[in-house]
User: What shape does this take?
Amino acid sequence: MNKRLLSSLGILLLSLGVEAQEFSNTPDLQINFDEPNWVFDVSTEVMEEREPRLDPNESVLGDALRPLLNNGDYQASALLMETAIADGAVLSPALQHILGQVYMALQDNSNAKQAFLNAIDVMPNFTRAHQRLGLIYLQEQAYDNARTHLSKTIELGAADAETYGQLAFANLQDYSAWSAINGYQQALLLEPDNQQWQQGLLFSLISAKHFPAAQALIDEMLSKDQDNRELWLQSSNIALNNDAPLSALTRLEIALKMGASSENDAANQIIAAQLHLQYGSTARAVDLMLASLDASTEYYSTIEEAIAWLIYNQQWQESERLISAGLESWNNLSPLQESKLLSHRGALALSQNNSDDASTYLNQAVELDPANGEALLSLADLQASQQRYIQAALLYTRAESIEAFQERALLGHAQLAIDQGDYRQAVELLNRALIANPARQDLDQNIQTLNRIILNEN
Assistant: This one.
């Protein structure tokens, strides 16, 4: 009767020793794509009721400026006006505005900004001066100032798509996503086919975590531009954030099959591989990971985690492909990293009943990293299966000192004690496991069974 009890107890202990592994980093995944190149233009439409004119005493300077401006000779234009200022002339708002435009053409935003501010000081409702100041502040990433002048521009009547788009961009950068949404919607109302406003609205919706609306918008954009790889990547990222991993995977695969186009491709291949491990094809996942391998160890952690997951799910061939490729490709592995791979290789050898190779790999893993709990436990189990109880006990004891592996080590050690008929030690080890993890109340039944056996023996 005791043998049957012990056999049943042993199976129970071993089955409780390892928790199911999950490839569980989906919530952290983010598709990589190139951000659009934001380009802003300034309307040159004249607002007659608020546009200043040259003062009568500036006619001579104006006549001299006109041919220079018509010929695009901005250096000479700036010099002419600067000379006039040096000679004591006080430029009107109209000429200050022209000077600001000239400086902008010369990419001298500092002087341009001052010229527009001078114009506004004299004429606070000078619409185009506010508009151009808003653009300069956008370029300087001074978004509070940009919003002040762009809002004033709209208030003064220049409610064109460009100004709405610029104001929306400033709001988005200043983390006011909902106001940015409204601004881009106004811009799109005026220019419904403008891709920049569509992209701006898309980014605003994503920033506001309004993923269903973002997905609807990008699907509309894709219906008109199905060969746009970046849109497919963005679409995949939105689906991922919208808790639709299968849709994200489908969209990401479409983008990847369009061919390489940026430095983000390896990262996106890894993300696709992670999604395939959870929802798709294991073989495709491994192919993608292999395609991303190079001499660097940038994706080592993800690939190593995938190997562990494949081994747990008995995908021996696929895990071997990754281990072999990794050891061949990675030329700067740390001892800890190499130890993990050797530990996995040992597990593969065990799955093939190749005890000699398993022992070799696992011993090498432990030599490289004495704190490799997985290797210690696998080696202890191997020694125990070969009835090398003293060596196995020493390995379990070493693993018990590693917090992440303590419970499994205590259970394995308890099983070893049962196999040797040392039930008192088994009870002691199980009690320690229960103290370490009070949630494991299921162990109490095992402890009671062993205590009954001890009493019967007495």
Notes: The CA atoms of residues 321 and 415 lie 34 Å apart.
